[in-house]
Amino acid sequence: MAYDTIIVEIEGSVALIRLNRPEALNALNTALITELGQALAEADRNDKIRCVVLTGSEKAFAAGADIKEMSTKTFVDAYDEDLFGARIDAITRIRKPIIAAVSGYALGGGCELAMICDFIIAADTAKFGQPEINLGVIAGIGGTQRLTRFVGKSKAMDMHLTGRFMDAAEAERSGLVSRVVPAAKLIPEAMAAARKIAEKSQVSVKAAKEAVNRAYETTMAEGILFERRNFQALFSTEDQKEGMAAFLEKREPQFRDR
Ligand code: CAA
């Protein structure tokens, strides 16, 4: 499918989606959020795609929701169109892994979009922030909740109340990103991580994603029970037999996603 605000490249079993509104530092307007949702849903449906990498440009992953588009809205407009509601919720329901590869600014909705992804690999140029407070609003794509769970209350409060930016080193130190790499290595590193995920049994990949996400939604006891039942259920798969046999036979497993 052809898109105006994103570019989708398929490399083997990985879909690389680039946000592409350079004139607005990839600000998230309705068209971009709609197209991103469509591209992710398409990747989720496509059996050949096993992992997604979501990135922006060198200067900006995304500089937030589109301020120009939002500036004249009333509460009723925002409420009526469910601004950043259903379309974002649909993105959170994508079952295949999504890696955010962040270079430059990931601000406001850009930081929030990166946090919706399954993990974030950052270039050493990355800058994260929730500067909505400077616009007389607050985060609206989950930033008050997700950032707090990533980095804890004190740092999240600091970011949301002062609007200051966090550099890549601080983001790694505080658990917001999984790794920091030199800017030139960002896409190769993210694609290599995606290819590694793509080699695994997709049954256990989906189960792992669901179980880790469950940690955000439930008590420890319920989460551990959810994990244990799914761990036990995976013994019904051919891939469990293959994975363990391959280990014992000192060879690479040939997973068949069943
Ligand atoms: N929305 C719309 N346009 C944006 C934008 C945004 N969020 N961020 C940048 N742009 C546009 C600028 O208006 C500018 O366009 P023009 O050339 O037509 O004037 C272009 O992108 C380049 O931006 P700058 O000239 O400002 O670039 P800079 O290098 O001087 O500064 C920046 C970069 C620090 C990221 C600055 O652009 C900035 O502060 N952007 C806004 C960040 C922000 O407040 N984000 C939160 C948005 S609200 C939100 O996200 C709500 C939510 O949670 C849902």
Automatic annotation (TrEMBL):
Enzyme type, top EC level: lyase
Highest taxon, organism lineage: Bacteria
GO biological process, one term: fatty acid beta-oxidation
EC number(s) stated in the UniProt entry for this protein: 4.2.1.17
GO MF, one example: 3-hydroxyacyl-CoA dehydratase activity
Pfam families recorded: ECH_1
Keywords: Fatty acid metabolism, Lipid metabolism, Lyase
Catalyzed reactions per annotation: a (3S)-3-hydroxyacyl-CoA = a (2E)-enoyl-CoA + H2O; a 4-saturated-(3S)-3-hydroxyacyl-CoA = a (3E)-enoyl-CoA + H2O
InterPro entries, alphabetized: ClpP/crotonase-like_dom_sf, Enoyl-CoA_hyd/isom_CS, Enoyl-CoA_hydra/iso, Enoyl-CoA_hydra_C
UniProt xrefs under NCBIfam families: PRK05862.1
Family: Belongs to the enoyl-CoA hydratase/isomerase family.
Function: Could possibly oxidize fatty acids using specific components.
Name recorded for this polypeptide: enoyl-CoA hydratase
Organism of this sequence: Paracoccus haematequi
